[in-house]
């Protein structure tokens, strides 16, 4: 879950930035602390006791930073019993949800964020995050100084506004390969500076003046939402499985029509599209991290037809699986968008 308390934190808990980093650390000091392309590893110090509620597990790892930007892997373990708090963004926030689900409410709208969704925040915007139906999430969070972000936007054609007009982007509104690229960025921090620029351009083109996958909480069918949450977690845990809509509906105890409607309303995409993105993400990870043949990777990712896998992989990543592996091995980062 992403934070508004300057660079990173868990929005479920009201914390001070110095409480995270300790000492005299400030967001601006963090932004200025290293040269362009400086990379970090290791978890940030524990939050400790907060507001009398005790401590919670929160691991915020700064992966890379430079003048005006920082990238962090943020893992939150808050759940339905944890109280949420209203906060305010102080930097431009752009975060890719890697795993888990949570609710994000800001002055720009309300959305249920799932893997592949992108959280957006303008400096000064109020927001609140909560886990109504699940426990925990993991995100790759970028935070930018406003001036730095405006300079990035200035380089994007056909985009004139730097402020976000919506709270988030659903997976279907971004590049299909975004999840795999974010995974690669976490694994290879030297990739993150380039990814930051690409992500800002991607979000600017997709999100300016566009509504994300948002809805009114009062109209939300809580029972259906809880079942969709459970289904998303099951699909995420078994990316190699490619169940039919009927099988998914049976698992969720909903009719296929009801499931399709609720799933798309909550996640912004269809069960099939969501499953395909997870399987492609799994395939990309296997190609980067192992030496298995392309056929074995296809089978492990739930594809029974190698030619179909190659075709879909090329459509999503702009290159063949073999070329993707070579590019990753060479650290050329020749990835899409």
Automatic annotation (TrEMBL):
HTH araC/xylS-type domain sequence ranges: 229-327
Origin superkingdom: Bacteria
Stored Pfam families: HTH_18
GO molecular function: DNA-binding transcription factor activity; sequence-specific DNA binding
TM ranges: none
Keywords: DNA-binding, Transcription, Transcription regulation
InterPro entries according to UniProt: AraC_XylS_family_regulators, Homeodomain-like_sf, HTH_AraC, HTH_AraC-typ_CS, Tscrpt_reg_AraC-type_HTH
Keyword Transcription regulation attributed: yes
Protein name: AraC family transcriptional regulator
Organism: Dyella soli
């Amino acid at each position: 879950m992403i934070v508004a308390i300057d660079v990173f934190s868990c929005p479920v808990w009201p914390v001070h930035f110095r409480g995270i980093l300790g000492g005299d650390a400030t967001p601006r000091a963090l932004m200025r602390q290293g040269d362009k392309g400086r990379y970090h590893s290791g978890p940030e110090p524990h939050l400790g006791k907060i507001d009398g509620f005790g401590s919670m597990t929160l691991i915020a790892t700064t992966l890379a930073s430079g003048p005006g930007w920082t990238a962090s892997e943020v893992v939150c373990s808050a759940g339905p019993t944890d109280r949420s708090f209203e906060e305010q963004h102080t930097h431009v926030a752009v975060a890719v949800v890697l795993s888990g689900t949570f609710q994000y409410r800001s002055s720009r709208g309300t959305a249920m964020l799932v893997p592949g969704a992108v959280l957006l925040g303008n400096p000064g915007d109020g927001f609140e995050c909560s886990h109504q139906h699940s426990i925990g999430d993991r995100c790759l969070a970028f935070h930018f100084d406003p001036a730095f972000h405006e300079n990035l936007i200035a380089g994007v054609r056909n985009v004139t506004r730097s402020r976000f007009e919506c709270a988030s982007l659903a997976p279907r509104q971004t590049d299909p390969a975004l999840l795999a690229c974010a995974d690669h960025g976490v694994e290879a921090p030297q990739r993150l500076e380039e990814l930051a620029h690409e992500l800002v351009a991607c979000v600017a083109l997709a999100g300016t003046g566009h509504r994300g996958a948002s809805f009114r909480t009062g109209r939300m069918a809580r029972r259906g939402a809880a079942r969709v949450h459970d289904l998303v977690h099951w699909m995420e845990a078994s990316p190699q499985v490619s169940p039919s809509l009927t099988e998914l509906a049976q698992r969720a105890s909903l009719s296929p029509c009801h499931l399709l409607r609720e799933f798309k309303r909550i996640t912004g995409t269809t069960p099939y599209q969501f499953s395909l993105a997870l399987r492609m993400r799994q395939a990309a990870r296997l190609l980067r991290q192992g030496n298995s043949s392309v056929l074995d990777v296809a089978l492990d990712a739930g594809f029974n037809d190698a030619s179909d896998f190659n075709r879909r992989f090329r459509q999503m990543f702009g290159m063949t699986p073999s070329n993707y592996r070579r590019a990753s091995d060479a650290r050329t980062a020749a990835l899409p968008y």
